[in-house]
Amino acid sequence: MSAATPLIPARQKDVNRAKVCDDNFIEFVQGWQGRPEPRPAPHEPVLEGSACTAADFLDLFESQLVSRHLDLMARVLRVQQKVFYTIGSSGHEGNAMVARLTRHTDPAFLHYRSGGFMAERFRKLPGMDPVMDSALSFAASSEDPISGGRHKVWGSKPLWVLPQTSTIASHLPKALGTAIAIEQARRIGHALPIPDDSIAICSFGDASSNHATAQTAFNTAQWTAYQKLQAPVLYVCEDNGIGISVKTPGGWIANAFRDRHGLDYFYADGLDIAEGYGQVQAAVEHCRRSRRPTFLHLRTTRIMGHAGTDFEIEWRSFEELMAVEASDPLLRSAQIALQSGLMGKDELLARYEAMRQRCFAAAEEADRKPKLTDLAEVMRPLAPYTPDRVAAEAARSDYAEKRLAVFGSEAKLPENQPPRHLAIQINQALHDLFCKYPEALLFGEDVAQKGGVYTVTKGLHKAFKNARVFNTLLDETMILGLAQGYANVGMLPMPEIQYLAYFHNACDQIRGEACSLQFFSNGQFRNPMVMRIASLGYQRGFGGHFHNDNSITALRDIPGLVVGCPSRGDDAATMLRTMMALAKVDGRVCAFLEPIALYMTKDLYEAGDGEWLTAYPAPDQAMVLGEERVYFPEATDLVIFSFGNGLPMSLRAAREIERAQGWRVRVVDLRWLQPLNTEAIARHAMQCARILVVDEGRRSAGVGEGIITAVVEAGQGAKPLRRVVGEDTYTPLAGAAFLVIPSEADIVAMAADLAKDR
Ligand SMILES: Cc1ncc(C[n+]2csc(CCOP(=O)(O)OP(=O)(O)O)c2C)c(N)n1
Ligand SMILES: [Mg+2]
Questions:
Q1: From atom 14 of ligand 1, which residue's Cα is the shortest distance away?
Q2: pLDDT tens by residue, 145-199
Q3: Distance from the alpha carbon of residue 238 to the mean position of ligand 2, in angstroms
Q4: How far is it, in rounded angstroms, from Cα 291 to Cα 280?
Q5: How many percent of the chain have pLDDT more than 70?
Q6: What is the mean pLDDT of residues 302-313?
Q7: Whole-number CA gyration radius for the chain
């Protein structure tokens, strides 16, 4: 059934299309000439042949009105500075059907045009008010129940709607991850916080479906289904035929998705509840029953422009605009209400106006509510840290029996073994953490049977089996999307990124998504994880840039992310324990950078000295977030701040410097690169006469800049001060690699330069 044709009044060239749509609705109802059919009973089809009952329809229509009047209200109150967001849901209100046909415990990752969905989902729990909650979000009030005034987002903790960012398509991987996690929980014996037959719902626009991040999620969904693994995700493509001002070619979505193996395609008319309800129902039931990735192509339209700032009359013809406005699903719903005899014209208009009043009243009330006025309050949920609980959790070692079973015997426990190198100690620590956390999962490229390209994860797959240690497909975006999905249902994911260079193409999954969840949900949702990344240079010229990447900057400026980089095996073990505790206790997202070149390093000063081997720390030992390791703390002539590969180089250079300059040299391994321990940097800088920073990362925006800033801000900038840093370039292959990264000789030479300062 097609939507009704609205009246086309003389005001057709009105600049204010929101008002035009509003007037269209009223005039359509007033001008309706049809004859009502006998009023259906609540359980009867709203119109003959419809899967939607009269009772369904009445609720859905009300949800549509909630959504529409929130949009109209936002357009009016924006100019009064009472509302700060005008991207609306008008034309998409049919998505309320998806909410009605799913459960409030089905995790939902929503498109920004989900006003109808939200209003309908609010019905699922008693005592909730979609209008007031939304109004508080529109007004950016600190009482906004989902984000606490940090963003206008669709979200609700009790309704399992996780708030999404404005980055289109970025939520598709984690929605799939959540669906996979729902199924995997059973295999690892993890108790889900939602029913076992839940599905993950993820909506997005037609233009967004072309995005690489969307395509990787579809591909992975298909790959998963192809392997006969279950992934009950319901992808809802809300096809309004346009993305801001760029039209999607007619038929493109159907053409692109109808015949994809492993992604089961359904179509529904989102402009017509009587028609679309049964179609949506078929898709939802298929997804829940078959546990297969399902693609619901939902026809929508976009009226009132992309946002309040989008004056479509400036770039679209009136004829086209009016044709779009004629497809308004609310006109069709009004027609159904009148035709079915469920409402007369007066009652319908009275409901319409009553909803307008309710939305305006809520918005005015929301405007009087408090806003965020305090920086500490803005940042409170971003990076929670409860040191005592984290320390207790990191040192918790109540899993002795499991350890014995995994390592074989008391004698074989790693702490009873001779000192070993970094790769081995990381490996042992991972085994321990897998004993400690039955909900921990490790996954990435080549991590399972092979144990990773550097065999750091060797043996884990054998010990903990497929359900907990597994290879993913070759896609970093999806690896990190999966991690968020597992975390969303309470697991502790440890995704591995094979090389730092390959983190960058998936960076948004951490920058835009994982690290923002606690912030935009006011701490109500969390996706804890410890991401391990093989990192940094010094691989004797082998591998070139992409295996020697040293851009730590890309990680360090991600709000809330914890970044650590151990330089020796014992530190790696205790840092990993602390990161897992940070994830478990405070929901933190952590990046653990493993210096590839130090994986196998055994010696420090001379071949065979074994000085870079370390004893394995017993499981009750951990590290405090930010805590530095100090070599030669009594030395005060020079302090060298470093980390990673810079550490053993600095220790060797320190001997040379002592010889050449006669200085006693203190070497500080910062270990934690974000947040930087500025207090420790200040303390050592104050205690020492000269300061040298050895930073293998890049000159611009690298860790070194942060260290120098901390020194200067501590009032120590007048002391002799230098940096030895990597250059702002890609790392070349072979011997040329050593031209761009710091060397021991550079450190010694820079110390000589320092000696020139008085
Ligand atoms: C990654 C990314 N690129 C660009 C944008 C800017 N942007 C916001 S919405 C949009 C169009 C989206 O169109 P569609 O997916 O069809 O959704 P619709 O707005 O039509 O519902 C664009 C380009 C963005 N938010 N995210
Ligand atoms: Mg669109």
A1: 205
A2: 999 999 999 999 999 999 999 899 999 999 999 999 999 999 999 999 999 999 9
A3: 7
A4: 16
A5: 98
A6: 89
A7: 30
- CA 202 to ligand 2 centroid distance, Å: 15
Whether pLDDT at 3 is above 60: no
Q: How deeply is 359 buried, as exposed, middle or buried, from its count of CB atoms within 10 A (0-12, 13-18, 19+)?
A: buried
Q: What is the pLDDT of residue 10?
A: 52
Find out whether the beta carbon of 568 lies less than 6 Å from any atom of ligand 1.
no
**106 within ligand 1 shell (Cβ under 6 A):** no
Kindly give, in sequence order, each residue whose CB lies less than 8 Å from that of residue 251, ignoring residues fewer than 6 positions away.
none
Structure tokens that stand for 487 in this block: 């975390």
Furthest C-alpha separation in the chain: 102
Distance (Å, whole) CA 575 – CA 591 = 11
Helix (H) or strand (E) holding 247: strand 246-247
Probe ligand 1: pick from 67, 168, 170, 172, max atoms within 8 Å of CB? 168
439-459 residue pLDDT tens? 999 999 999 999 999 999 999
DSSP readout, 429-488?
Answer: HHHHHHHH-TTEEEEESS-SSS--TT-TTTTHHHHH-TTTEEE--S-HHHHHHHHHHHHH
Q: How far is the CA of 91 from the centre of ligand 1 (A)?
A: 16
Q: Which two tokens stand for residue 348?
A: 């319908």
- Please, what is the average pLDDT of the chain? 96
Helix-strand-coil split of the chain, %, nearest 5: 45, 15, 40
714: tokens are 């501590």
State how far the Cα of 116 lies from the Cα of 36, in Å rounded to an integer. Answer: 26
For residues 478-502, give the mean pLDDT.
98
Amino acid at 692: L
- DSSP strand E in 83-196: where? 108-109, 161-162
In the sheet where 492-497 sits, what is the strand order? 469-471, 440-444, 492-497, 529-535, 589-595, 562-564, 672-674
pLDDT interval class at 327 (50, 70, 90): very high
pLDDT value at residue 9: 53
Backbone angles phi, psi at 290, to 5 degrees: -85, -20
Neighbours of 307 (CB within 10 A): 15
Q: Is 166 in the pocket of ligand 1 (CB under 6 A)?
A: yes
Distance 215 CA to ligand 1 centre (A): 15
**What atom in ligand 1 is closest to the CA of residue 302?**
20
Q: 525: which 2 tokens? A: 């949702």
Q: What is the pLDDT averaged over residues 306-312?
A: 87
CA distance 433 to 274: 54
Task: Give the integer Cα–Cα distance in Å for 485 and 506.
Answer: 15
Residues whose CB falls within 8 Å of the CB of residue 459, separated by 6 or more in sequence, listed in order:
427, 431, 451
Kindly give the distance from the C-alpha atom of residue 239 to the centroid of ligand 2, in angstroms, as a whole number.
6
The CA distance from 487 to 481, in Å, is 10
Crossing angle for the helix pair 646-661 and 744-754, to the nearest 10 degrees: 40
Which atom of ligand 1 lies closest to the CA of 113? Answer: 21
- Cis preceding linkage at 675, omega within 30: yes
pTM over 0.90: yes
**N-term to C-term CA, the chain:** 87
Q: How far is Cα 696 from Cα 565, in angstroms, rounded to an integer?
A: 12
The torsion region of residue 459 among left (phi > 0), alpha (psi -120 to 50) and beta comes to left
pLDDT at 115: 97
Whether 386 is in the pocket of ligand 1, judged by its Cβ within 6 Å, is no
